[in-house]
Amino acid sequence: ATDILETVGVEFELDSAIGLFKKNGARVEGKRVFISPSLLTAALDSLPRVKYDPTHNKRLIAASPFSNAPMILDDFTGRFRQGNVQDAVKMYQLAETSDLYESINPGVVDPEGNDSEDPYIGQIAMMLKYSDKFPSLNIRATKSNTKNSDVYTSAKKAIQLIKAIKGDDSSPVMAQGICPLAPLSYDEESLINLNVLVEEEQNITILPCTLSFMTGPESLLGIVVHDIAICLAGMVYIQLLRPGTSVSLTNSSTMSDMRTMQPAYGSPEYLQIQTMFYEVCLHFEINCILGGGFSDGTRNDYQSGFESCFTAIAPFYMTVVDELWCCPGLMAAFAGGSFQKMILDEELIVNCNRILVGLNLEFDPLLKDKLVESLSTKSFLTIGSPAIYRKEQRVSHIFDKKGIDLGNDTSDVSVDINVLKEIEKRCATYVLPDRSETQINLLQRYQPTQCKY
């Protein structure tokens, strides 16, 4: 990877970035920047390091629903359609009524019906109206979703809006992932968003999304070499902008299914790429975050369930990772989202965490006495403790545990009644975050019409 930086180079499609590299002695040919070992070493030396000490407190974390889903699987028709503002509101309501989620993101990306003057800031304003969780954005300002195609101004205003609502101007109030443009390039929009994050001193994650045999090499190791090179180039750029800026890495690269020309995330190949990438970050003591719970499926069926579970649990047995961040409801390789699958994925996370946490091996002090008594009662129903049962066992109210007789009821096989009831209950109990009159008036300026207070 370091050889590639020095001999092949990485393109930076922003004049100010090219000027910054030239000023710091990098060789530049057009838009291609060649990063020498000395420049790379200096940048890495100024980067805050992360020492990996496994805690063995392994867990899956629900980041936010859907990740980035332009399409939504309709609960009743079973067909994908463009996500709309109502879908976005519903997503926030479900996320806010669960303790599993530790961050939030406008997961229904560019929703239909967003008539805000600046659609990008409109999505941020919706997020701040409906959620109090920590913003961790997977969307970014682009020429197509900003007022007058002014990426810089919209990205800046969005962060300042978050600061105003959070009431904090001294520490990071949000995180954002910046995806380079494979192969070996940072496009203008990603660099502008990156510049704003550095200026506003927010949390930055670089996340390459390279597809084998398309935007990256055809071998899995080749993809990892490419991704490490492009991440190191971005980290050098950030350190030249502001030395000492913390940067995290993650990875969304995977194999391409050449039959459909689409990425395949629910696969062993995805896990192998991610694990190799993570191991390099361990070596360099670079903060790295792993994602899981992915699915390429387009229905709530065996494929989707298998892929979500497989990519959620396998990384814990492939490397020393303690945490894996999941986006419940994610389908179709990030292209789609499903509210029913969101609920099912939440249940998956709860059950997988029970396995990862393990058992509390404390004997019931009355166990011997109960065993003696059971020889007479022939059952523990009258002598056992319901409290111990409830503590030790968890019966899912989402997954079907009705038994074989009730399982023969085929009166309604098109929908999962338990899931739909959970969605309905959670949306009905949702309460808007408490906002002051000043905050309400500020958000009102940017809200889509449907979401105005």
Explain this structure:
This protein is an alpha/beta fold. Helix content is 41%, strand content 11%. It has 15 helices and 17 strands. The protein has helices at residues 2-7, 15-23, 37-46, 85-96, 119-130, 151-166, 188-199, 220-241, 268-284, 302-313, 339-357, 367-377, 386-392, 417-429, 437-444; strands at residues 10-12, 27-29, 32-34, 59-62, 71-73, 80-82, 136-137, 175-178, 185-186, 203-206, 247-249, 255-257, 262-264, 291-292, 323-326, 330-331, 336-337. The longest helix is centred in the middle third of the chain and has 22 residues, at 220-241. It is globular and about 85 Å long. The mean pLDDT is 95.
Overall 3D shape: globular
The helical percent reads: 40-55%
- Major sheet description: 4 strands, mixed
Strand percentage lies at 5-15%
Mean pLDDT: 95
What is the number of E strands? 17
How are the strands of the largest sheet arranged? 2-3-1-9
Backbone CA Rg:
24 Å
Q: By helix and strand content, what is the structural category? A: alpha/beta
User: pLDDT below 50 for ≥5 consecutive residues: which ranges?
Assistant: none
Number of helices: 15
Distance between the termini: 51 Å
Brief overview, please?
The protein is an alpha/beta fold.
Write the layout of secondary structure elements.
Layout: H1 2-7, E1 10-12, H2 15-23, E2 27-29, E3 32-34, H3 37-46, E4 59-62, E5 71-73, E6 80-82, H4 85-96, H5 119-130, E7 136-137, H6 151-166, E8 175-178, E9 185-186, H7 188-199, E10 203-206, H8 220-241, E11 247-249, E12 255-257, E13 262-264, H9 268-284, E14 291-292, H10 302-313, E15 323-326, E16 330-331, E17 336-337, H11 339-357, H12 367-377, H13 386-392, H14 417-429, H15 437-444
Parallel strand pairs: 1-9, 4-15, 5-17, 7-8, 8-10, 10-11, 14-15
Antiparallel strand pairs: 1-3, 2-3, 5-6, 12-13, 16-17
Helix pairs in contact: 3-8, 5-6, 6-7, 8-9, 10-11, 11-14
